[in-house]
Design brief:
Oligomer: single chain
CATH class: Mainly Alpha
Radius of gyration: 15 Å
Structural class: alpha+beta
Order of helices and strands: EHHHEHHEH
CATH topology: 434 Repressor (Amino-terminal Domain)
Distance between the termini: 25 Å
Strand content: 5-15%
Number of helices: 6
Helix content: 55-70%
CATH superfamily: lambda repressor-like DNA-binding domains
Length: 89
């Protein structure tokens, strides 16, 4: 079994939920289990789009939405399948 991570599917939706619920970057980063809010800022700016499974679940729970409303899961086995498809083509 490969490593699992999450991909933020819509950074604008995340930002909108934060505004609607009056949640700051620092507050949400703390809820995610991060010591700093800098990575959340990078997610919101679109500089990065991946994060570990646990912070993604914590963020969704804190904002009271389903994990799949904000994130899509990926695994290293997904990468291997895509590579095999490319080689086979």
């Amino acid at each position: 079994m490969g490593a699992i991570w999450m991909v933020l599917t819509d950074r604008k939706k995340l930002a909108k939920l934060m505004v609607i619920q009056d949640v700051s970057q620092r507050e949400l980063a703390k809820a995610a289990g991060w010591k700093s809010h800098s990575y959340l800022g990078r997610l919101l700016r679109g500089e990065v789009n991946t994060l570990d499974l646990e912070p993604a679940v914590r963020i969704a729970m804190y904002l009271q939405v389903g994990t799949d409303d904000l994130f899509m899961s990926r695994s290293s086995s997904d990468s291997r399948r895509n590579a095999k498809r490319l080689v086979a083509a």
